[in-house]
Design goal:
The complex is a heterodimer.
Chain A (H helix, E strand, L loop, with lengths): L11 H23 L9 H20 L3 H6 L1 H18 L1 E3 L2 E7 L2 E3 L1 H19 L7 H19 L4 H5 L2 H11 L3 H20 L3 H11 L8 H15 L10 H4 L11 H33 L4 H25 L17 H19 L5
Antiparallel strand pairs in A: 1-2, 2-3
Chain B lengths: L8 H28 L1 H12 E6 L6 E2 L5 E13 L7 H11 L4 H13 L8 E4 L4 H9 L7 E10 L7 H4 L2 E3 L2 H4 L12 E3 L2 H5 L1 H4 L4 E7 L5 E8 L7 E2 L4 H11 L4 E6 L6 E7 L5 H4 L4 H9 L8 H4 L8 H11 L8 E3 L2 E4 L2 E4 L10 E3 L1 H6 L3 H22 L21 H8 L5 H8 L9 H12 L3 E3 L11 H9 L3 E3 L4 H12 L19 E7 L4 H6 L9 E8 L6 E7 L5 H33 L26 H6 L5 E8 L8 E8 L17
Parallel strand pairs in B: 2-10
Antiparallel strand pairs in B: 1-8, 2-3, 3-4, 3-5, 6-7, 8-9, 11-12, 11-21, 13-16, 14-15, 17-18, 19-20, 20-21, 22-23
Helix pairs in contact in B: 3-4, 10-23, 14-16, 14-19, 16-18
Classes of the chains: A mainly alpha, B alpha+beta.
């Protein structure tokens, strides 16, 4: 099988686009941390480069693994991820009121990030076997359960932001898999009914994030403040931006986490509307390129995997950039390829590896 | 698997369009913030970045007429709580309270009050003033944990010790709500330190500088990143007073702990040389922030220590009013040849009025105007009052400024009362009775004066009718904007006074501090000292007899004196409350007069010496020892051996010219004599007590 694939078929355009975004991201991480006393000694931009190199290595390695093998083992991955999420709840380290990490000697492991990718595979695997034009109710419920179990476990940590990222691959799968219109309506209705009840059971800080999103002026200390400062940063950037390391909101640490969740605000302040639009365009091109790969995928399952990744990526961009411009509440999810962080970088390159494997096998059958 | 199983193409197209919409929406979000509302956010970012900390302007120093420091400033630190920091201030309250030795509840209350007020968030709260070095160190050490704390250097007022000159100086404090609501203070902002009384209030615009601003760039934790620009504070301008510290010190010492007031004034210019009021208070207690209990103590004290009695006490002038009566009687041509027999009292309008001499079981015998003044014969002035009538008395009283404000450059001056028939009808809807006129004749009854009014009135008599506007600021040395306004006001009005009458009154007054007068014990050797005593009843004599031991019912002693007797250089008014007799007040005045003369002579001796040493030609008659009484025969008075031995500086020859009033006609007399310099004169003061 291996001799049937060739790196000539590797999606170099997609990789180039992604590396371009990574470059912008690393540059902004540098700018946002170089003058911050908290990070001055950390050299986060260098660390980010290491992560990118590690990611690239991982990507090429994964691209050699037949995605069908991954799909075949998806149930096992799935089970493993459920167990790891339970382990987090049982043995996880409590940081700022939430158990998200398992501490191993030398490093911390946050399983919920990887579960995203496993869910993409699990959903693709599920729909691989469903060949009807339309989904039956039973299939719908089964598909829902695949996602809702890890969703509930992550909500329990609690980490609503990450939990929400599990839903887009499901919705994408349901859409592509042929969900019935009336089922869709019923789900929308159910969500509408459940949300107020869910709100009641949320942790106070989660409720606050939602209410402060709706009424930012009432909460000038907490997340309302964060959003306000991010908006000020973006707005102050103007059309051309204030220049690298010249944004006062970024440099003065007014933006919370300017190298991480709010990197878009820092980037928009220093590079202006022009920079922000270029970045959005790059993301759009990445997404379009991914969809192109889904179109050329050798089979239904491959297309589902790629589209699942599209859903996760698009959701991250929507929520993260939406949060920075004040359209979305603060959820604390990173901007893929831009934000600092090993998990985020490795996840993206792992996903790229899988996509490339699918692409390289487009002529196999 | 075959290709038919593939995902329908149209669905992927739908996803593509959906993603296009997402990107466009996000792009619009960026457009909205970065293009449409960029200006707003830019200014918000600027506001974030820049912190403005006030640089408080020091108030101007207050100086005496010779430039000696009366009020200075000292540097002190205050802690500000910056409220525009995005922090939960209430959570920090406990730590803040501990470090600044406040109670956490107090800190929280202050935060809540500030939040409830409509002051802008950028307006910091002053948490504590005049902090200790330890508290300053605490704030500096907690810059990271408590970025909302900021210290500023404040120049605080350093006032003289022990309430010295406190009433004239006044004090400063935070501008009150009441003041802010008044139109004349519209430029004041909450939190400003402004003058609250005395010259601190009256000349606040001069003394108060303009605060500057330090603009620094800060990060989100309030750490200073760099300095941007400073608007320097414009310090307040100094205020030069007419007060002479040497005279002021003498007046303060003379009054001591006694209740009352002393005013010393130049009768030609109206310059106040000294002003004392007792009991006094310590304005240093106000320099930081007076505690509620201390304030209540001051306000409820029956002695009213905050009252400047020199301009605010309104009391019956007693016998000092007889000078006004004498002037009225002489100007009206009644008193010149009036002879009254004083058997210890007389009957008017069916009632017997006693003369004070009858309490000593004596009589005055036949009394003319001169004796009536130096012996202060009540019977004479009862009779004169009856003949003049209240209308004439009120006319001359008003001419001499009684019953109206003197216009001194201090706030809240009292008006006093110069009663008349119209006055009584207007205020009491009753007819004036003749008996009341008799009472007014000896400065009792409805007539009420302030020490400054009385001093000014008698100063006018002593200068042949110069009614001055008293003032405490050196008008000539005010900055041009204020000087013009000050000089525009009427200064001196002429009261028509016949020079002959002037001489009669002042000569009689010169006999008051002599053996034949009412205050012989206030006599100062070799000083031409004239004046008039007064002992004013607080209650009727009958009531007085009933409550013999009530100190608050004791009579008030008055004295207004000056030197030399005509065209004096200084007039001193003394109110000695509960002092029983004017002669006790006269002794206090004598101390002030002596200090003045001593200083003047010392100055002149030094001038003579300088001339002698420098070989300058002494000009004839430039230095007349005019404070010495004119020698009767016009013979030069030789210094005695003991005079010379007592003070080596004393043997200085003087040439003198003077009017010899003992002659029948005006005659210019002259002579040469040795002046006796004062024995062990007080050293001139370098600055007010308590100044560095």
């Amino acid at each position: 099988m291996a001799k049937n694939i060739s790196f000539k078929d590797f999606d170099w355009v997609l990789l180039a686009l992604c590396l371009l975004i990574c470059a912008l991201g690393t540059m902004e991480i540098y700018s946002a941390t170089i003058n911050a006393p908290k990070f001055a000694e950390s050299h986060l931009h260098i660390k980010q480069l290491y992560w990118i190199v590690a990611g690239l290595t991982l990507m090429f390695f994964v691209s050699l693994i037949n995605y069908e093998v991954l799909l075949d083992n998806a149930p096992w991955f799935y089970l493993a991820s459920i167990f790891s999420l339970m382990a987090v709840l049982l043995f996880g380290r409590k940081v700022l009121g939430a158990r998200r990490w398992i501490a191993f000697p030398g490093f911390h492991f946050q399983p919920s990030e990887w579960v995203k990718l496993i869910l993409v595979l699990a959903i693709a695997r599920f729909f691989m076997d469903v060949r009807n034009r339309e989904l039956s109710l039973g299939e719908l419920i089964k598909a829902g359960l695949i996602v809702l179990v890890p969703f509930a476990l992550v909500m329990k940590q609690p980490d609503m932001g990450t939990a929400l990222t599990y839903l887009p691959p499901l919705l994408m799968g349901l859409f592509l898999g042929g969900m019935k219109m009336r089922h869709a309506l019923v789900i929308v209705l159910l969500v509408g009914l459940v949300t107020p009840i869910a709100y009641k059971h949320m942790k106070p800080y989660q409720q606050q994030r939602l209410t402060s999103f709706l009424h930012p002026e009432e909460d000038s200390q907490g997340s309302g403040y964060q959003v306000e400062q991010a908006k000020i940063a973006v707005g102050a950037g103007g059309i051309w931006g204030r220049g690298l390391t010249k944004g006062t909101q970024t440099q003065g640490s007014f933006i919370p986490e300017p190298h991480n969740d709010f990197i878009m605000a820092a980037f928009a302040e220093e590079h202006g509307f022009v920079g922000a639009v270029v970045l959005l365009l790059l993301y759009f091109l990445v997404l379009m390129r991914l969809i192109h790969n889904a179109q050329t995928a050798p089979d239904r399952a491959g297309a589902f995997v790629v589209m699942g990744i599209v859903a996760v990526l698009a959701f991250h961009i929507l929520i993260n950039v939406g949060m920075v411009v004040g359209f979305m509440p603060v959820t604390g999810i990173p901007l893929p390829l831009m934000s600092y962080g090993g998990s985020s970088v490795l996840f993206m390159f792992l996903a790229l590896g899988i996509v490339n494997n699918i692409r390289m096998r487009r002529f196999v059958n | 698997m075959d290709r038919d199983d593939k995902v329908p193409q149209y669905k992927l197209t739908v996803v593509q369009y959906a993603l296009l919409v997402v990107v466009l929406v996000l792009g619009y979000g960026m457009w909205r913030l970065q293009v449409l509302h960029s200006d707003t956010f830019e200014s918000l970012a600027e506001h974030n970045r820049v912190r403005e900390v006030p640089i408080l302007a020091p108030r101007g120093k207050i100086l005496d007429r010779e430039g000696r420091i009366i009020v200075d400033n000292y540097p002190s630190f205050s802690v500000l709580l910056l409220r525009d920091q995005k922090r939960d201030l209430n959570a920090d309250a406990a730590l803040i309270a501990e470090g600044l030795s406040l109670s956490p509840d107090e800190v929280r209350t202050r935060i809540r009050k500030a939040a409830a007020s409509n002051a802008a968030d950028s307006q910091p709260i002053v948490l504590k003033d005049d902090i200790t070095p330890n508290e300053l160190a605490f704030v500096e050490a907690h810059k990271v944990e408590l970025p909302e704390l900021e210290t500023i250097m404040v120049h605080r007022r350093l006032y003289p010790k022990g309430g010295f000159m406190a009433h004239l100086i006044g004090y400063v404090g935070e501008v009150s709500e009441d003041m802010l609501n008044q139109p004349q203070y519209e430029l004041y902002e909450p939190g400003m330190i402004v003058g609250k009384s005395g010259v601190e209030k009256y000349y606040n615009d001069l003394l108060m500088g303009k605060d500057g601003q330090r603009r620094v760039e800060v990060d989100s934790r309030g750490r200073e990143v760099r300095r941007l620009s400073d608007t320097p504070a414009v310090p307040g301008r100094p205020l030069k007073l007419t007060v002479d510290l040497d005279i002021q010190i003498a007046a303060e010492q003379a009054l001591g702990d006694k209740e009352g007031a002393i005013v010393a004034m130049d009768p030609h210019s109206g310059e106040i040389l000294a002003m004392v009021s007792r009991p006094t208070f310590d304005p240093n207690a106000f320099a930081v922030k007076i505690s509620r209990t201390d304030w209540n103590k001051l306000v409820t004290d029956p002695g009213k220590p905050l009252l400047n009695k020199a301009i605010q006490a309104q009391l019956a002038p007693g016998s000092t009013f007889k000078i006004i009566m004498s002037m009225a009687g002489l100007q009206e041509g009644i008193a010149q040849n009036m002879k009254v027999n004083c058997p210890g009292g007389a009957t008017f309008y069916g009632r017997y009025y006693r003369c004070w001499v009858s309490f000593l079981h004596q009589t005055h015998g036949v009394v003319d105007i001169s004796k009536a003044i130096y012996q202060s014969c009540d019977t004479f002035f009862y009779t004169l009052a009856e003949r003049l009538g209240i209308a004439k008395i009120a006319y001359y009283g008003s001419q001499l400024g009684l019953g109206r404000k003197t216009g001194i450059d201090l706030d809240d001056e009292a008006t006093g009362v110069m009663p008349s028939e119209e006055w009584k009808i207007r205020n009491f809807k009753q007819k004036w009775t003749g008996g009341e006129t008799i009472n007014v004749g000896i400065g009792q009854g409805a007539v009420n004066v302030t020490p400054i009014q009385l001093t000014r009135a008698i100063a006018a008599v002593s200068t042949d009718g110069n009614l001055v506007r008293p003032h405490v600021a050196m008008f000539e040395e005010l900055p041009s904007d204020l000087r013009k306004a000050a000089l525009d006001q009427t200064h001196t009005t002429r009261v028509d006074l016949d020079p002959k009458n002037w001489e009669i009154i002042t000569d009689a007054m010169a006999l008051v501090p002599t053996a034949v007068g009412t205050s012989g014990s206030a006599h100062i050797d070799n000083v031409d000292f004239a004046g008039k005593t007064g002992s004013a009843q607080v209650v009727s004599i009958a009531t007085r007899e009933k409550f013999k031991n009530r100190a608050d019912l004791a009579q008030n002693g008055w004295f207004v004196g000056f030197t030399p007797r005509r065209n004096p250089d200084v007039v001193v008014g003394v109110l000695f409350q509960g002092g029983e007799h004017g002669k006790l007040a006269a002794r206090l005045a004598a101390q002030v007069i002596k200090a003045y003369v001593d200083k003047q002579r010392r100055h002149e001796i030094e001038m003579r010496r300088a001339e002698a040493n420098g070989g300058a030609v002494p000009t004839l008659a430039t230095i007349q020892d005019k404070y010495s009484p004119p020698p009767k025969q016009g013979t030069p008075k030789a210094a005695t051996a003991s005079d010379v031995a007592g003070n080596r500086a004393g043997d200085v020859d003087f040439m003198g010219v003077w009017h010899d009033s003992s002659a029948d006609e005006h005659q210019l007399a002259g002579g040469k004599f040795k002046a006796r310099a004062s024995i062990a004169p007080a050293q001139p003061a370098k600055a007010a007590p308590g100044m560095p």
